[in-house]
C-alpha cells in the first residue's frame, strides 16, 4: 500500500502521511494500535461480565463475527503477514496483540480462581495461546468456515470438561489435585 493510495482514500494530501507518521509502515502500526485499543474498549465490558469459559468462548464467537464484518480480520492478517518479513511491523503488531493478551489474561485469572486448573495453568501463556488460537481461527475461517466451526465446537467441549471438574465435590477435587501434583512433579 502506498502513501498515495492511503492519502487518496483519506481525502488528504500525500505529504500529510509523511508529516504525521514518517512512513507508511508507521502509519499502519499506529492504525493497528488505535484500532485494537478501540475494539478492545468496545469488548471490555462484555469480557468483564464473562462468568465461565463457555461464556468466554461465546463472546469470542460473537467478537469473531463482528470483527470479520468490520474488516478487522483482513487488516490483522495483512499486518501479521507483513510482520513476518519486516521488523518495523513486527514489534508494533505484537504490541497491539498484547493488548488483547492482557485483557484475556485478566479474564482467565478471574475465571480460573479457585479451580484445580489454576494451580497448574500458566495463565499468561494460556492467554497468549487463546489469542494465537483466535487469530489462527480467524484466518482459517476465511478458507474453511465448517472446519472453524468444528474447532470452536471442540473448544466448547473442553470448556464443558473444565466446568465439570470445577463442580466436583471436595473429595474428588483433592484426589484430582493430588494427581495433578504428581503429574507436574514428573515433568
TrEMBL record:
<dbReference type="Pfam" id="PF00440">
    <property type="entry name" value="TetR_N"/>
</dbReference>
<dbReference type="InterPro" id="IPR009057">
    <property type="entry name" value="Homeodomain-like_sf"/>
</dbReference>
<feature type="DNA-binding region" description="H-T-H motif">
    <location>
        <begin position="2"/>
        <end position="21"/>
    </location>
</feature>
<dbReference type="GO" id="GO:0003677">
    <property type="term" value="F:DNA binding"/>
</dbReference>
<dbReference type="InterPro" id="IPR001647">
    <property type="entry name" value="HTH_TetR"/>
</dbReference>
<feature type="domain" description="HTH tetR-type">
    <location>
        <begin position="1"/>
        <end position="39"/>
    </location>
</feature>
<keyword id="KW-0238">DNA-binding</keyword>
<protein>
    <submittedName>
        <fullName>Transcriptional regulator, TetR family</fullName>
    </submittedName>
</protein>
